[in-house]
Every structure is written in structure tokens, then in C-alpha cells.
Amino acid sequence: MDLMLVAALAAALGSVLLGRGSTRLVRALPPRLAVPAMTLAAVLLAACTVGTLLLVAAGYALGWGPIAAFGGIRPDQLHARLPIPGALAAAAGAAAVLLLLRLGFRAVHLTVAAVRSARYCRRLPGRARLVFVPGDDAVAVSGRPGRVMVGRGLYRRLDPVQRRALIAHERSHLVRRHHAYLQATELAIALNPLLTPVGAAVRFAVERWADEDAVQRIGDRTEVAMAIATAAVRAARPAPAGAAGAALAAARSHTVGRVQVLLADPTPSRPLGPVAAALALALVLLLTATGALDLHHAVEAAQPAAH
Amino acid sequence: MKRREAGELERAVLAAVSSASAPLSVSEVLPMLDGAPAYTTVMTTLARLADKGALQRIRDGRAYRYQLAAPADAVDSAVTARRMGKLLGLGADRAGVLARFVDELDPQEERLLQQLLADRRHPDGPAADPEALRPAAGRTSRRR
Predict the structure, then answer these.
(1) Where is the composition biased (Basic and acidic residues) (chain B) (predicted)?
(2) Which residue in A139, A147, A186 has the most chain B C-beta atoms within 10 A of its own C-beta, making it the best mutation to test that interface?
């Protein structure tokens, strides 16, 4: 079978496997490593998937009448070297175009959200990073600079150590630029929907990262766990109606998982899964590069007139 | 006439309403403003401030009266909260611009966490099941 097809299948299979394993993979590494690693893996796999689809389409299209004539390519030679069925090439090309359109729409959406969020941060009262607001929730909003909004209701219910844990957690989101990883992951998912489960895994790992920063800050895992549990139990009271309530209801709970990890003894990381995943990713990258080279050589060989 | 900046009129209107002891109608706000803005302009501004959550609308016959939605120092907060709702409506969680401290729990998860908190507040009470929250059984307890 043709190398480019193998590469395309490997990229798709790799994306499915990364999606299925993502929850376990992010738990196998310290979150400060898991977040960048998983984000990078998702971005690379998404690029490989669309890249290999484009290669398959190009391998056929370059031997097509007008294009072949323009490039001085002999179609019979190209097709002899790259026997890609026309229907398959057309499907690959159409899929690539659709995925790139999805990426475009998502990029516009993310940009609009980022601009609005930055404007929102500028207009918040005061200059301090921390803003108290009505409500029973706490969020970090990205911007330049980003802001931490803490609901007064929640703040009142926490004891002083838990308050410090909460604020350290939210500050970590801003200082570590967690929104950049989340946005990159969303773009990768737009480009390759097979990666969809990776989104939840990265969101979980980002929260874990901020939790670990809070542990560093106050020096007590249990207190951080208790701050999360206290906040979560309050936040589970009837949510306000309207947009905020809808957004809350749509989220799937990572909270219990975070409390579990904080209360468990720190386990030595077992990087076997991540190492295997990295090797598989390297294989996909290698196959994609080889596929691209293969196409390049095939086209050169079918250009008797050139050079 | 000099063109006002959009925010300038809003601030003036907000100041006028907050200086009054009772809810004001549009025609009562009008003479309190510099530069003789048009009636409809002030009406629109009041309506916009109400939409933003800064003012509260009170029906009075066929017209509206306006008062601050919250005590003066909390108006900023009310506006903040309203804008927050809009940001969330945009799917800000998914768009990566917003990270919440905790998310929604289902009833079973909430019971687990409540149990955990109760145990901690009354450590000598009836022993409920702290292990339920631990991912792996058989590890030695580290809780204080």
C-alpha cells in the first residue's frame, strides 16, 4: 500500500488512541508536564491528520489534466508510481477542506472570545488583579492583564487558609497562561474531531496544575482539597437562571477527581504510558514526513522536462 | 454641540440617579445633566444602564422610574456580574478564556464531598467513609 495512505491512517488511528487514552495519560505525569505535552501532541496529530489527507489528494490531483500540464508532469508516470484511486483522493481532499474550514471558524470564535474577555478585564473596576464580585463562584479570566474574580459568597465561607489556596489557584491560571493551552487544544480539536476527548483531559490537567501551585503556596494538600470541596458543595446549590446557569450545567465535573488526587498520597509518576504515546507520535510524524518526501520524489520523477 | 463620549453621559446619568433619594423619571434626570442632552438620548442611556444591570427599572404608570440596582459601591459589581453572564453566554469556558475554580456536581458527587467535609469538621463523629474518595485502596492514611 502507498506510504501516504499509511501515514493518513496512522495519523487518524493515533488521534483516536490519544483521545481514548488522554484521561489516563494526563494523570500519569505531573500536571505542569502533562498540560504542555498533551497540548503539543494534540496539535501535532491534528496537523499530521490534515497534512496526510492533503498529501493523498495532491498525489492524485497533480496528475490531473490541466494541473499536470501546468507542472510539466506526466500523469501516467505519476499514477504508476502513486496508484491512488480518484474517489479516495477526492474524499481526502474534501475532508481536508472541511476540516480547515472548521479550524477557520473556530479560530474566529476563539479570537472574538479572547478580545471580549480582554476588554472585560480592562473594564473591571480597580487595577488589582483580584476583584470581588457578587456570587458564589470564582473564575480566572484571561486578558492583559488577566483578572481573578472571586464571589463574595464563596469567599466568606472559606477559612483563611482556604482563601489563600483559592487565590493561589486562580493566580496560577493567569501566571502560567493556562488559557493559551486550552485555546491551542480547542484549535487542534477543530482541525481533527477525533481528538475531542483530549479537550476534557487538558481542562482537567490545567485545574490540577493550578491545584498543585496552590499546594506549593500554602504547603498543605489537604487544605487545598478542602477548599475545593467546600467551594464545590456551595456551588452545587441552585444555580442562577440564565446564561451563567446554562454554562454551569453543561460542564462535566472534574472537581471530585481533583479532590481525590490531592487526598491520595503523592504517587511516583509512571511514565510508561506517556513514553509509549510519545513514541507513537514520533512514528506518525515520521510517516507523515516520509509520505511528503515520497510525493516529492514521485512528482520529480514524473517531470522529465524539468531541470 | 460638542459630541460627548459614550461613557461620559452614562457616568453623568449614573451620578444623577445615585444622588437622588427616590427613583427618578427621565424628565427628572434631564435638568440634572450638563449640556442639555435630548430627552430621547437620556431615555436611551437610562434604558442601557438598566440593561447593563447598573440601574433598576420601576414601572410608574405608563413610564419608568430608575434607581440604582444596588448600593452605590456595589453598582460596579452588578455591572460586572451582568457582563460576566454575557461572557459565559459566549461559551467562554470552551473558548479557553475562563477557568472556573469548581464545576457542577451531580447529586452523588455532592454527597461524597459533603460527607468528607462533615468528617473533617467532626473528626470524632460517626466514621463515615473517607476512603470512598480515595482512588486507590490500601494506601496508608495521610489525613491529619
Answers:
(1) 115-124
(2) A139
